[in-house]
From TrEMBL:
Region of interest called Disordered, as start-end residue ranges on this chain: 1-22
Gene3D superfamilies documented for this protein: 3.30.300.20
InterPro entries the record matches: KH_dom-like_a/b, OsmC/Ohr_fam, OsmC/Ohrsf, OsmC_Ohr_Peroxiredoxin, Peroxiredoxin_OsmC
Stated name of the protein: OsmC family protein
Superkingdom, natural source: Bacteria
Organism listed in the record: Reyranella aquatilis
A Pfam family reported for this protein in Swiss-Prot or TrEMBL: OsmC
NCBIfam families registered for this protein in UniProt: osmo_induc_OsmC (TIGR03562)
C-alpha cells in the first residue's frame, strides 16, 4: 500500500507559503507557511499532521487490540501532542505525547493497560517516529 501527498512552495522559507494536497482530497491546496508552523496563523503545519496521524493510527490499533481480546469500545478518544524543539541550527520532533480516554464495557484496568501499551508500540506511526513516545491512559 502506498499513500501520497504533495507539497508546493512559493518564495523564501520565512516569507513564502505553500499548500498541501493528498490523493484522497481530504487536504486540497491546504495552506501552510512559517507563520502557520511557528506563529499560530490559520492553516496547517507538518507537526499538526503528524499529530493527527499518530492519534488516528494509535486509536485504530487499539480498536483492533480490543476487538481481538473480545472487547468493543463505547468510545476511544486520543490526543497526540507533538513537540518540535531546537536541535543545533535546525529543529527536531522530540516527543509525541498520547493522551487516551477510553470507555470499554467489562474491561479491567490491567488488561486495558496491556492492550493500550501494545497498540502504542505496534502502531505503524509509533514505529516510524524517531522520538520519545509517552502514553497517558484513562479507562472510564
Amino acid at each position: 500500500m502506498i499513500r501520497k501527498a504533495k507539497a508546493a512552495w512559493r518564495g523564501t522559507g520565512k516569507d513564502g507559503s505553500g499548500d498541501l494536497t493528498t490523493d484522497s482530497g481530504v487536504l486540497s491546496t491546504t495552506p501552510y507557511s512559517f507563520k502557520t508552523r511557528f506563529q499560530g496563523e490559520k492553516g496547517t503545519n507538518p507537526e499538526e499532521l503528524i499529530a493527527a496521524a499518530h492519534a488516528g493510527c494509535f486509536t485504530m490499533a487499539l480498536a483492533f487490540q480490543l476487538q481481538t481480546a473480545g472487547f468493543t469500545p463505547t468510545s476511544l478518544s486520543t490526543e497526540a501532542a507533538i513537540s518540535l524543539d531546537q536541535d543545533g541550527a535546525g529543529f527536531k520532533i522530540t516527543k509525541s505525547a498520547l493522551t487516551l480516554v477510553a470507555e470499554v464495557p467489562n474491561l479491567d484496568q490491567a488488561t486495558f493497560d496491556k492492550l493500550a501499551e501494545a497498540a502504542e508500540k505496534g502502531c505503524p506511526v509509533s514505529r516510524l517516529l524517531n522520538a520519545e513516545i509517552t502514553l497517558d491512559k484513562t479507562l472510564k
